[in-house]
Amino acid sequence: RSLREGLVAAMRAQTMTRLPADALTALLGSAFDRAALAIEAGASAQDYRAVLMALIDGLSLPQAPRPVRTR
User: Fold this and answer.
1) pTM for this entry
2) Cα–Cα distances in Å, from 62 out to 14, 16, 52, 59, 70?
3) How far is CA 43 from CA 9, 14, 40, 57, in A?
4) pLDDT for 65 beyond 80
5) Closest residue by Cα to residue 5 from 16, 62, 31
6) C-alpha–C-alpha distance, residues 6 and 22, integer Å
7) Are 6 and 29 in contact (CB under 8 A)?
8) 11 with 18: CB under 8 angstroms?
9) Cα→Cα distances 35→3, 11, 22, 25, 60, Å
10) Out of 6, 14, 35, 54, which residue is the most buried by the measure of CB atoms under 10 Å away?
11) What residues does each domain of the chain span?
């Protein structure tokens, strides 16, 4: 799947804030590209991963806890 398809699916499932899909895809894709370039140039992959995860987590909507299954 493409980044856009994944973002649209998450928005439809109401697990992510609804935003214009094309703009969100372009900006997140750019962030991934810049991170890859920086890491290739010697930057800390751990730092970039932490920041990208924080960006993605910031777009996520809180979910109700899932019920615990009992047998």
Assistant:
1) 0.80
2) 9, 9, 18, 10, 24
3) 32, 34, 7, 22
4) no
5) 16
6) 12
7) no
8) yes
9) 16, 24, 20, 15, 21
10) 35
11) 3-59
22-47 confidence digits (pLDDT tens): 999 999 999 999 999 999 999 999 99
Contact 19, 11 (CB under 8 A): yes
E-only strand ranges, the chain? none
16: left (phi over 0), alpha (psi -120 to 50) or beta: beta
Q: Note the residue count of the chain.
A: 71
Judge contact between 16 and 58, C-beta under 8 A.
no
pLDDT > 80? residue 58: yes
Q: What is the mean pLDDT of residues 12-19?
A: 95
